[in-house]
Structures
1.
Amino acid sequence: MEGASVDHLAHERIRAEFDVEAMKIAWAGSKHAVDVADRMARLVASDPVFKKDNRMMLGRKELFKNTLRKAAHAWRRINELRLTEEEASMLRIFVDEPGYVDLHWGMFVPAIKGQGTDEQQKKWLPLAYKMQIIGCYAQTELGHGSNVQGLETTATFDPKTDEFIIHSPTLTSSKWWPGGLGKISTHAVVYARLITDGKDHGINGFIVQLRSLDDHSPLPGIVVGDIGTKFGNGAYNTMDNGVLRFDHVRIPRNQMLMRVSQVTREGKFVQSDVPRQLLYGTMVYVRQTIVSDASKALSRAVCIAVRYSAVRRQFGSQDGCPETQVIDYKTQQSRLFPLLASAYAFRFVGEWLKWLYRDVTERLQANDFSTLPEAHACTAGLKSLTTSVTAIASLTYTVCNLSITVFQSCLIHYVETVLLKEAWALTEVLGMALKNVENYVVAMDIFVAVGFLSYLLSMFLPALTKEIMLFCFCSCNSSLSLCAAEDWLKPSVILEAFEARAIRLAVNCAKNISKFPSQEEGFSELSADLLEVAIAHCQLIIVSKFIDKVKEDIQGHGVKELLQILCNVYALSLVHKHLGDFISTGYITPKQGALANEQLRFLYAQVRPNAVALVDAFNYTDHYLGSILGRYDGNVYPKLYEEAWKDPLNDTVVPDGYHEYVRPLLKQKFTVSRM
Amino acid sequence: MEGASVDHLAHERIRAEFDVEAMKIAWAGSKHAVDVADRMARLVASDPVFKKDNRMMLGRKELFKNTLRKAAHAWRRINELRLTEEEASMLRIFVDEPGYVDLHWGMFVPAIKGQGTDEQQKKWLPLAYKMQIIGCYAQTELGHGSNVQGLETTATFDPKTDEFIIHSPTLTSSKWWPGGLGKISTHAVVYARLITDGKDHGINGFIVQLRSLDDHSPLPGIVVGDIGTKFGNGAYNTMDNGVLRFDHVRIPRNQMLMRVSQVTREGKFVQSDVPRQLLYGTMVYVRQTIVSDASKALSRAVCIAVRYSAVRRQFGSQDGCPETQVIDYKTQQSRLFPLLASAYAFRFVGEWLKWLYRDVTERLQANDFSTLPEAHACTAGLKSLTTSVTAIASLTYTVCNLSITVFQSCLIHYVETVLLKEAWALTEVLGMALKNVENYVVAMDIFVAVGFLSYLLSMFLPALTKEIMLFCFCSCNSSLSLCAAEDWLKPSVILEAFEARAIRLAVNCAKNISKFPSQEEGFSELSADLLEVAIAHCQLIIVSKFIDKVKEDIQGHGVKELLQILCNVYALSLVHKHLGDFISTGYITPKQGALANEQLRFLYAQVRPNAVALVDAFNYTDHYLGSILGRYDGNVYPKLYEEAWKDPLNDTVVPDGYHEYVRPLLKQKFTVSRM
Ligand SMILES: Cc1cc2nc3c(=O)[nH]c(=O)nc-3n(C[C@H](O)[C@H](O)[C@H](O)COP(=O)(O)OP(=O)(O)OC[C@H]3O[C@@H](n4cnc5c(N)ncnc54)[C@H](O)[C@@H]3O)c2cc1C
Ligand SMILES: Cc1cc2nc3c(=O)[nH]c(=O)nc-3n(C[C@H](O)[C@H](O)[C@H](O)COP(=O)(O)OP(=O)(O)OC[C@H]3O[C@@H](n4cnc5c(N)ncnc54)[C@H](O)[C@@H]3O)c2cc1C
Ligand SMILES: [Ca+2]
């Protein structure tokens, strides 16, 4: 990839049993996607303004200023080169620095697109597209996160002036966390309780200007600032997550986002005939983005970990031969390879979600909602929307959880050294998992969205019908017929096992809930169990999408074979990890579980010679990875050594503070202690 | 605890069903221990020099200088107040900032104590005790971590001058990571390959002066510096982890640590009759410290998480009532309470290890080793030493792993907000897990140290004796007789289940190993499974030590009862987590597993009213916790808000960089993009 220096991992790359270029296409989705990513990644990597390696050494202010510089430069390049939307968003990905632009493009624009009327879109979107205004998404408050319905900020309609008065009545109503808010945004979509004529109509979105377009000072009645330095050198400290308070700030009535609900000139609150489910659109979009971001973060971490594990040698040297590569240790493989497989699994499920989002959006737009009764809409096109929300909710949960696992694994295990030394990729994972998603709460959505639980509950509540009995009987009493370890390689076997586990856990849980005096009580008492059902459910989705992917027509020598292996690694490592679920629901025996584990070892052996090539297929530049341990050429040690000397602490041989605080101590100015 | 302001958690504290003051004693070990900790914690908290809250805002150099200042001030106070060793080390704990002193007292001094001869101790320890020299522990090299036997630095004896020549022959032989080395230490214990007369005698320790005691400049032939900024704002950046290279540096012969091996004036290499196992002493000491540090870090994180979960409210508000405290959600409890129980479990097992270390040391010192053949020594007093090493190895592994779990949990779950905003306690956990311990490698020690595996192997290799058959039969075919959820509360039931799981997993593993052509191959192929056996083994130790603790005579209303509940939470949450192990070894049935999970819910309900009081019993000051979310008085929101404004980014309303990088963009100096 880069440079012309010696490739210390060449011996690994030669061993690959598949066509890496073809795998790049399978990973990226198309030849076109590979090309665009490749061009944008090189563009960024070769531009000195986008240098990343000094980030750890900058104070908050310099770090932040440097981010502003990068954002402006990126925008200039996007314009100069007349990049397409696809190219521009790729370029931003490779600039790889959280900043106000992410919220502008990722939340502010989609909110207006999703919740604004046609006129509102016509007015605001061109300004936003040209960045003549910069926007953020101001929902979360100091006292209110997951519970959006509990927000306290008010937007009270004043019919006299045809305005809304935006106000922060309490300390806990201060907006808190929105990215881009602290120092940069000129505008925000602010979520607030709509009040007309003394009546509370719940949460709605409003476009509010925050700062003067002339001198950037906050407008009257607005107090705004940054919430302070966050954990992790740099990363989210390049972002101005902000705090915001309103003191009776007035905005015109037409700045309420009115696609779904409106307030008339007279102050009447009206619901439009656009089905509320359409609002899910933005949510689906945002969550799908999160899944895709998380899979990116996971693959970066895995890429670093695999390469460094191939470079790093420890123990096992005999008569002067080099030591064993740590990637050859089975313990290392059992930590790394499931995560490598997960990176691929998430990539494919993310692509599927993107497709689903487009598909659902198109189908919805084809309908004329004014003529569709809401109930009808629910069954037809909306059914798949709901499914997608569910899927996304579940997947977001799993993906974020798994990102944490890779973070954790990197932590203790293979890149022990990485973590305290260089952690860009990992910090990103962290940010990912924390941002926007309240995982547990999201997982609970599954039940709410699909009505899955009430469906199951209905099965076990007193009036059991014969059909339902039959259904339960069929799906709950069979067991897996499998005698040899190789049988675990069959997609049908894997799929059945995951299906059986998911449905039986759910059935058990529903049975237990039915024992409580009320459904609510059971639901709340057993919520931890429900969570486990949710996890089982979404792992099933991921496994089945991976299996579908492998069935597709995939080009390139060995590519399909390797994807099949990764798919099996992903599934069987989950069987091992959740063995208690699989066995206790009675579908598989302990013996069969042991066979899965045995098969897993054989699969690891098949992954091993391909491991480095499999992470090469992500096609990440060294600039994007931002990790010495993960360098493409494996030339780790000289670079680590070289970098160390650049630390400010090495500016002088004798450190600042020596004369005041160390020398007196050594020269024993103190009396001898009693020790 | 501090201040006189309103206690927002008073309603929680009133609910406690036990005597918190008595629990403090149970936690700390004695009334005396509580008093010392209390005095030292207040001393630190009330001293402005020890302020911690500006750490996030300092650049590396200022941060480091500030640490030097704190260390000097602590030393001055220790001397002025004529503190005892116990008090001094408590004070250092509460200063709570990693620094060169930790390595000086924690590694340099113990290494000399453990590996130095009496004369060497007499010469060097007084200098170290008075801090007339400052030392570090320089073992790890750029290319060599866990594999100490692979170190490349050489110490070649020169009989002409009666000196050793310390040399770094390669880049990878550079010392890399030692704390305190980068900028401060005047001396180091350096580990290097001893070479006499062309012969390599393996790794030995040497006391080497690194810097001038006059002007602190590195001595001739020595290149030394800091390895650079690490991940996490502050925390380990207060430490000067260092890099060090030697170019033929000469030291007198008597600076080799010669308790175990000597080099004579003539250059002869001699092994002393002190059994090598004695060397384990330092290792045991250091590992025991790590267990205790890790339990401290875990309890801090849990304290913050529990308090914030009691303050934080989300959802469930009805008719204007406040929302539900998030600690009331069962999902939250199922994440928090096992960790709370683990904090107690680790505290007690740590105390037990400390006792074991003292006991073993005393017993060893009572023997006259010059008359003891090594083989003999192995069986007698040393047997318990080996056990302790094993125990410590295993426990270190588990504790560190669990600290990561709490870190992880904090991450995604209850203190979502904490992490990116304030992470002192958590960073410490991180450092803990990464430092000194290579977890996986350590876990492998179990088998090596106890010979446990070869014991098991011998059972299944061809020559099976009748006795062994019988043993296996007895211990492997029984199963748990348990019908009601309450039966899971019996210590005997818990202990049996953990024992059966540990032994059966080991037996299965040994059986599988015996199927391989050679034992080595089996060992290496199944190392991931062996690791799981190791984990089962050390969880058994922790559970059994917790059970022992509860059996002791414990004072105070309700204290014993609460500890019993926590012990059961610890054990049953592990049964649930590792259900696959427990069921597949055939000792418990899926039904019994479900009962354990059911019982766990009842236990959570019993913990709930006591949760805040249980973390209060750790007796941590707000200064030590260093967390706004974890404040004793629960007054979170006003303080978060207040702190935000202190960030450097809020120094000006319009940020640095606005005029260069934001205004031109808003004023549309660029041509319109194609988007
Ligand atoms: C990096 C970052 C960037 C962000 N950017 C933005 C932004 O641009 N705009 C914006 O508006 N917001 C932003 N946020 C805020 C984000 O939306 C919230 O953090 C998120 O909604 C979760 O809310 P919370 O942090 O208040 O957690 P809370 O809702 O207070 O939850 C705390 C914990 O309580 C538990 N809990 C809560 N409710 C329940 C329940 N019903 N059942 C069981 N357990 C429960 C959960 O375990 C949860 O972890 C950002 C946050 C971060 C970390
Ligand atoms: C904060 C911090 C402070 C430190 N302070 C000091 C100090 O004061 N003095 C000092 O001398 N050192 C210090 N160290 C270094 C520390 O001792 C090493 O990090 C530790 O010994 C692990 O070595 P390593 O990092 O080189 O990992 P490696 O040994 O390279 O291991 C890398 C990975 O390879 C795998 N692996 C290695 N061997 C095997 C095997 N046989 N089987 C299976 N898997 C294997 C493991 O998963 C491991 O995680 C410090 C480190 C840190 C992070
Ligand atoms: Ca920093």
2.
Amino acid sequence: MSQPLRLGIAGLGTVGVGVVKIVRRQAAMLEARTGRSVQIVAVSARDASKDRGVGLGGYAWETDPVALAKRDDIDVFVELMGGHEGAAKDATEAALATGKDVVTANKALLAHHGQALAEQAEAAGRVIRFEAAVAGGIPVIKSLTEGLAGNEITRVMGVMNGTCNYILTRMQDAGLPYDDVFEEANQLGYLEADPTLDVGGIDAGHKLSLLSSIAFGAKVNFDGVELEGIQRISIEDIDQAASMGFKIKLLGVAQLSGRGLEQRMSPCLVPADSPLGQLKGGTNMVVIEGDAVEQIVLRGPGAGEGPTASAVMGDICDLARGFRVATFGQPAETLKDIEAASSNSPAPYYVRLLLEDRPGAMAKVATALGDAGVSIDRMRQTQHDDQQAPVIIVTHKTQRRDLDAALEAMHGTGVMAGDPVALRIETV
Amino acid sequence: MSQPLRLGIAGLGTVGVGVVKIVRRQAAMLEARTGRSVQIVAVSARDASKDRGVGLGGYAWETDPVALAKRDDIDVFVELMGGHEGAAKDATEAALATGKDVVTANKALLAHHGQALAEQAEAAGRVIRFEAAVAGGIPVIKSLTEGLAGNEITRVMGVMNGTCNYILTRMQDAGLPYDDVFEEANQLGYLEADPTLDVGGIDAGHKLSLLSSIAFGAKVNFDGVELEGIQRISIEDIDQAASMGFKIKLLGVAQLSGRGLEQRMSPCLVPADSPLGQLKGGTNMVVIEGDAVEQIVLRGPGAGEGPTASAVMGDICDLARGFRVATFGQPAETLKDIEAASSNSPAPYYVRLLLEDRPGAMAKVATALGDAGVSIDRMRQTQHDDQQAPVIIVTHKTQRRDLDAALEAMHGTGVMAGDPVALRIETV
């Protein structure tokens, strides 16, 4: 008879309560599957008196998560507080320093301090598991680290921020402008306290940096992620994309090029009939491509009590079973310091310009593109009533820097009536 | 420094060669990820002289797979021969009896003998891993057994025979009848030597029985799978389904009902805009629903050298890392003997009838349905030139046995000009 696995849970928000519920409700099932009893010993949250809809009376209460992490009667420290500095970081370090494994849903913490924490964990013979930090209930970390361990990964892509996908889907379905849908999402409580984390692509960028570390055996490099949010996407972009058979998604892409590791989180056009293009609302999707497996697509809820708690429980069950994969899939000391490469792998681009409606404007634009070596696949000037002409261009495959040079040159011609929008068309 | 993990590979067909290639090409990567060197010690196949496009000279050769399985210089027996009796079974048993873990792609073997083999493995302190047996490169066994271990699974569904999905997709896209596309698939080498394994749903049924064992903690019960093939699906069915917003898929569904475990592998209508409905060609898809995670959808190639070898390698890497999950996710002795329930959970049905074109025929059909308690949602008689009238009916939710009673009664009325087709409309 194995010893029970003893948990200390820090953070009793939605996810923490979800984990407590599963451990209580499914005790017999968890023991049958893992061969051990999974028990909560102690919990920590700011307000002990709050009714969280689940019985917590049997557990020791710690006001200080660091004190919880250091308790000698727990085996696993479950960090569900969030935030990449302060209590979450201190408590995680304290847990590792005192010999606990750590299960966390904290993408920001690992995106900023993953390498140092992984090294600390390994020095202590412990692991950090973080399935819940990426793509909610989808077992994507496990698939990448274990199921696809025989693959040289060639590309990882994902729609990993449900709020952004909700906003973009809703703009299209309801024909509403960004600002209205943003406000709607805010009212519905879908946005982070700092909404830039969502719509600026930061939250999704954190997730991408974790996936690319595992995929390419690289040290986490969140600063190497080129971030671009969805704030400038207009209904016109969505409609124009749709008319050409595309959807606009806040898409993360990580791939190795000859010059280094490209990581970008930005609005992209993807084929409307691809799995990514068909994804609606708050659902997440991760696409993994490997030399042997070709392409795997994983889809599921990206947030919420049940799905996120499911991911946390998967990690806990692994630890109960004694499965300890290295934090980023291989020993931290073997992770490479791969240089961040700017997103220059060639792709077609969608470009929306607003031109002064006067003779020769279009010629100046076409010349700027040609001079930069960017060739045009399709171009259309859409109907307009005022003095400004919207122009949509789809380029042939080009490098982003050449396109940027062309856009820069256009600015100098005096025909531009507004800032251009340039979105990569990703092959999926 | 850990000891190398030593493999003996029986079967050097497409998948076996794929595994050899990965082990040779990715030696450094595999060692970085698992912390051990993964080495092939010995192989077995009928013809040692055949050129398989990969170097095999460094490995011991065994003509007899049982002799390979018994070698004391291997840790893992990799069974890639196929077949549920004979050499594959003998060799697997011999491997377990002599203390090896087993990795296999053999769905038939486990569908027929999974319980006995799992018990034998556990008695010997070994495990059988079979990621490659279900849905090719998709890490579905791992997701279900480990990633979703905190979930009470409520339903598992899947399109798990690429050949059937190819045939159905091709019929729709090219407007070709079943027989023509079947012949085409045959020419392309997509069909098993006994094509009934594919088009009769047997191969996919094997896979479903393995998934439902893990999902519901039940002993594998392939005999409990209600099997229905795609041989009777006509273009008209596909077109009628499409006109109502559905696609026809050979869909496996496993779920617990009050009366036991329902397992069915049969052609079903699914919404055209659902992930299952959008699946084309040889790609596989598995949908897993759990009480916490809600719904996860996994999609990927269901067959082929690379994808299947990827799945085998995932299992091998787990063993190299020392991860040994019980064969069906929990100890074999704890697996329940859940009674097979016939597929009576209520659902709407699509029914195509061919009636004698004479007055009162439709009334007799409607009466038979009404008498059996089956109510009609939609009904249409399609255009026809001859003496027989095709009628399409969509029922409200009904139990299959009530529908069958109605169809039985219709037969007695003398108005039926052919056998009816009745397909479940699955909510996805």
